[in-house]
Specification:
Oligomer: single chain
GO molecular function: isomerase activity
Number of domains: 4
InterPro entries: Fatty_acid_cis-trans_isomerase (IPR010706)
Number of strands: 14
Shape: globular
Radius of gyration: 27 Å
Helix content: 40-55%
Strand order of the largest sheet: 9-8-7-10
Protein name: 9-hexadecenoic acid cis-trans isomerase
Number of helices: 29
Organism: Pseudoalteromonas piratica
Keywords: Isomerase, Signal
Length: 776
């Protein structure tokens, strides 16, 4: 009976949809995909670039830009606008079978192909007329609904607004849109924010009436054109050594936004695999992972223009120039090694970099990773794996990262060790995108245990009696590379990595060696498929537990053995028995530290020694200035816990002094008894141990709160925030100093925020995402 009722409901809904479509076709005619792209030099093209695109970026892309944009509506490019909406959820941790990928510019090359994949338009695809272009546009109607139903004048919106990340988005087609908004008039866009201004509305209305023509990108300058040719020539030489180098580089750079220094304008490119050589149109090889079988005789590595607006969430800038070219030549080509045969693309080889790139010496690969450490780590911080709490509850909220000196791990002895260990270093991506979680988990946990056993044995020999286990083991960035010290912040369901040791001394720290650094990349970036099934996502998350603990153990090795046990016990309070036993197995490494200590606070002293060791390369951009405003705000680093508990994960503070705005980030760090729980993080929380960090500039891509202060208000703001001890007092603080999502001038302040960020961040700048903006 239940099956019959469900089937009946499906038939009724389907029937209603068919009736709605038929009614529209009777009224307007048959829909078909339009050709909307015009040359950038035409009047319509210039209008799109000069008038339309700025409105879309500043008012729409702030919520409709990334993988988790509602209804997959990505308004960051003409292709995304034309593609439209889909009801399919990208982030689904419960699906039993891997989904079909829907990556813009990759999995379909035309709007017609997107229609075949189930996407419906937000622009008119019925016969054109100014009236039809508005009436049949979901984009226009959603703006009109907001104009007709403005936000209520309240501080906090009611329960009719759902801002949860996993909310059921209503992805209505134009044929059903009117019925949908009749029931839910609050669905007008921008959702949960004030309507756009009349001038902005008129710009979009005019554009839509004229057929929503969108411009192709203007040609690049000659310098940039020549740089593309030079780099494509470098990456596509014929020798096996060149081809292996390019494959390695591609598998680590495929997420980056590449640009060329010294160009007149910054133009971003993506490194892609193509079926065609330089000089011919690019034919992207669409695979789930960068190391999947391309199914062509020869892969070519090409640079294609990034067509989309730059978002803070996924912006990983990478500068290329002659110095970088020389460095790659020195590392990969001048180093004396032979490439007898190119590795296969069989999954057990391609998913395991210790097999696929075994012919490249360890020191070469590791030095490449170190040269770009922040960029590589950004891959798993800003990549698609890092959306959502379950993806990120594998790391602490605030920790520092340092690296092992490459000369200590880059020699023939280590090359042979990794060759012997390569089977143990197999990655979960070997199971591809449909994995059985239990059997796969058991398989990789056993392999990791065997590897650690061999690693500990080697370390016991290498560091017998503590010899060499001292600060000389920590990479100093050759005295100039500030990638040597990094800080990672987790913001509950997003994260950030920055250069320098930022904030107060953290609870934990990682020290990465080559094998650990490489495995993290191939686990969370190259080997992760956001469209994979629940088993794939589960074993990826669980395997990262091992890698995190291995990084922590590398740090603890610098401390005396008893202190290692003490800190482990504190970091993993109330951990499951199986995890406690696993941690005990790590005690197989039992050599003393070669570091001399003189205080009772051994961890704090070790932090100081590492900072002193890296003093020449420590990036200090996030340290507060000595001016009165910064020093007054500095007190927020010592907020009482009652105040910290009320804070959002990421709050931006803008201080106005005349015509100038200075920016700060106030970050809430969630404390945990341990972070070993996959689905019940709340039970492991220790909120009374939460802390906050106040830093100069912008850290975080998803601001939840914007505090806007006149310079004269800073002392009052600090005093009142220090006194916050309840939600009521926090709301009172926001009443006075915050720009809420319901503020009638919200968009003016949003513009100030982005203008300030663009001036401060330059090539690192990207549009912030408001999907986590607080409703409080």
């Amino acid at each position: 009976m239940r099956k019959f009722v469900v089937l009946l409901l499906i038939l009724v809904v389907s029937g209603c949809t068919v009736m709605a479509v038929n009614n529209w076709q009777q009224k307007y005619g048959s829909p078909e995909v339009k050709q909307r792209i015009v040359d950038s030099q035409t009047d319509q093209g210039q209008f799109y670039h000069d008038a339309v695109k700025p409105v879309l970026e500043s008012r729409c892309v702030v919520c409709h830009g990334c993988y988790d944009a509602p209804c997959q509506l990505k308004l960051t490019s003409p292709a995304g606008i034309d593609r439209g909406v889909s009801k399919q959820v990208v982030y689904d941790g419960t699906r039993l079978v891997a989904a079909t990928p829907h990556r813009l510019f990759v999995d379909a090359q035309s709007t017609s192909q997107w229609r075949d994949l189930g996407f419906s338009p937000v622009l008119n695809e019925y016969p054109e007329s100014p009236t039809n272009n508005l009436a049949a546009s979901v984009l226009y109607n959603s703006l009109l609904v907001k104009k007709s139903n403005p936000l209520p004048q309240v501080a906090k919106l009611g329960s009719e607004y759902d801002f949860s990340l996993d909310r059921s988005a209503n992805c209505a087609s134009i044929e059903n849109y009117r019925d949908t908004v009749a029931k839910q008039p609050n669905l007008g866009m921008p959702y949960g924010f004030p309507a756009i201004s009349d001038d902005e509305f008129n710009v979009l209305q005019h554009w839509l009436m004229q057929g929503a023509k969108m411009a192709s990108l203007a040609p690049v300058d000659e310098y940039t054109h020549q740089q593309v040719k030079k780099w494509e020539a470098f990456l596509n030489q014929d020798s096996a050594k060149h081809q292996l180098m390019s494959r390695y580089i591609y598998e680590h750079w495929f997420l980056t936004n590449i640009y060329f220094t010294n160009a007149n304008d910054v133009t971003y490119y993506k490194l892609v695999r193509s079926k065609t050589p330089p000089g011919e149109p690019i034919e992207v090889i669409a695979t789930r992972r960068p190391f999947d079988d391309p199914k062509v005789e020869r892969v070519y590595y090409r640079l294609t223009r990034n067509q989309a607006s730059i978002l803070a969430k996924n912006h990983i800038p990478l500068a290329l120039n002659n110095k970088e070219l020389a460095r790659l030549h020195q590392l990969f080509l001048e180093t004396n090694y032979e490439v007898a045969q190119l590795p296969s693309y069989q999954v057990e080889v391609a998913s395991n970099p210790f097999k696929s790139f075994a012919q490249i010496p360890t020191e070469v690969k590791y030095q490449f990773l170190l040269d770009h450490a922040q960029t590589i780590i950004m891959g798993f911080i800003k990549g698609p794996v890092c959306r959502g709490q379950v993806a990120l509850n594998v790391i602490n909220d605030h920790f520092w990262v340092a690296f092992v000196e490459p000369k200590r791990v880059g020699n023939a002895n280590m090359d042979e060790f990794f060759h012997q260990m390569d089977d143990y270093l197999a990655m979960p991506a070997q199971e591809q995108s449909n994995a059985l979680p239990i059997s796969s988990w058991l398989k990789y946990s056993r392999l990791q245990a065997k590897f650690l056993e061999q690693k500990n044995a080697k370390m016991n020999t290498s560091f017998a009696d503590g010899k060499g286990l001292d600060m000389s083991l920590v990479w100093q960035g050759e005295g100039h590379n500030d990638n040597a010290a990094l800080t990672i912040f987790r913001h509950f369901d997003s994260a950030t990595v920055v250069k320098g040791f930022v904030g107060q001394a953290p609870k934990t720290m990682w020290v990465l060696d080559y094998s650990l650094f490489e495995r993290i990349h191939y686990l969370l970036v190259a080997g992760f498929d956001v469209y994979g099934n629940v088993g794939h996502q589960l074993i990826t998350r669980l395997y990262m537990d091992f890698l995190r603990m291995e990084g922590e153990q590398n740090f603890l090795a610098f401390l005396p053995p008893e202190e290692r046990k003490k800190l482990n016990a504190h970091w993993y309070r109330e951990a499951p028995k199986s995890l406690v036993e696993y941690l005990k197995s790590n005690e197989q490494f039992n050599q003393p530290s070669g570091v001399e200590f003189s205080s009772d606070d051994l961890q704090g002293e070790l932090y100081s020694k590492i900072k002193q060791h890296l003093a020449a390369v420590l990036n200090t951009r996030y340290e507060l200035d000595n001016d009165g405003v910064s020093q007054a705000l500095e007190q927020l680093n010592r907020l009482p816990n009652t105040a910290v508990e009320q804070l959002a994960q990421v709050s931006f503070i803008l201080v106005k002094d005349g015509d100038k705005h200075t920016s700060y980030s106030l970050l809430h760090h969630n404390a945990h008894l341990n972070i070993s729980s996959l689905l019940n993080e709340g039970a492991q929380r220790a909120p009374k141990e939460d802390t906050a960090s106040l830093v100069n500039g912008f850290i975080g891509d998803y601001p939840a709160v914007l505090f806007y202060l006149e310079k004269e208000q800073v002392d009052e703001f600090v005093g009142k925030l220090q006194a916050v001890n309840s939600e009521k007092s926090y709301i009172a603080l926001k009443n006075q100093f915050a720009i809420r999502r319901t503020h009638p001038e919200f968009w003016r302040y949003s513009d100030i925020l982005h203008k300030t960020a663009k001036q401060a961040l330059t090539v690192e700048y990207g549009i912030f995402d408001y999907n986590r903006f607080e409703n409080k």
